Amino acid sequence: MRNFILEGKKIARPVLVTTCLLTLLTCILSCTLYRGYTLHFELDPWEIGTEFLSLLFPLFVTIPICWQLYYERRDRFLTYTLPRIGRRRYLAIKWGACALSAFIILVIPYFISALFALYVRAPQELWPIPKGYAHVFSNLYAKTPVLYALLLSLWKGLLGVLTMTFGFVLALYGSNVFIILTGPFIYVILENFFWAILDAPGLRFVTAFEPTSLSAPAVHATSFIAGPALMCIAMGLVAFYFQKVKKRSIYQV
């Protein structure tokens, strides 16, 4: 636990700043941006105000966190830890601190902005639901919006951890800090473009992160599993490439 706290302190400042800024921004947008839209449910302003996170979240969970591991490798700090703590144990503790940080960066802004959208924003007339309108988990969304927002925020936090892990793997082997910090973002963009061309939007990682990007009938269990599974495969291939093809060690830059 002591080592876990120490690792968390190393990235506490950028994580805190990122979380506070995102919380402030999402709360403001959720309370203002909806005014030009037609609303059908009380939680609609939250979805409108947090749309930008569906595109930029890989940057928010990677840049404030993974830079520190890269500099530990570059300065050979990881090598100095070998006599004091096992390699796997140190990396596991470090990943745990980074995972918790990535989880916090997404869950807190999402959930607090949902509460602002429900209880703080100025009320606006809700329009009748048009014929053919469909929303993911519509009963939960309409009847228990707080529970819906909490569950979706937790799910997005878990996907944020997975995305951060991609950057973590890049930081373990990569030597270019720009590629390390933007790699997950580039992957999500290219993967989104690739599956859009093949007309398979349900396989996108963005669909798992933001299920409301598709109409409700098009979202099913595979939509939540396919994108994360493909990212795990991509991480495995990246690690295999660096280890077996490039012959690169974690403890050498």
TrEMBL record:
Note whether Transmembrane helix occurs among the keywords. yes
Q: Where are the transmembrane segments?
A: 12-37, 52-71, 92-120, 146-170, 177-198, 218-242
Does the record carry Membrane as a key word?
A: yes
* UniProt keyword terms in alphabetical order: Membrane, Transmembrane, Transmembrane helix
Record's superkingdom? Bacteria
Q: What is this protein called?
A: ABC transporter permease
